[in-house]
Acyl carrier protein (Streptomyces griseoloalbus), 86 residues
Amino acid sequence: MITTEVTFDELATLMKQAAGITVDPQELKQSADSPFDVFGLDSLGLLGIVGELENRYGASLPPDSERCRTPREFLNLVNSTLTAGA
């Protein structure tokens, strides 16, 4: 079971690594309910982030993870999945 949560800071880092998009973590947190496309992230970029998280934590995320529309929705799904040990 994983006890750490993926944070907005980590998501911002992953957005840079997986999709080449630079986002200020504080801006991401303040605009957590804004659609990903506001930050320039599309579903393919989000899929890259999902793959990176699956590799990093050795856990599969739900198949619809890349369909999350906002950073908050995505982090809630990822963190609930990781802490449940899925």
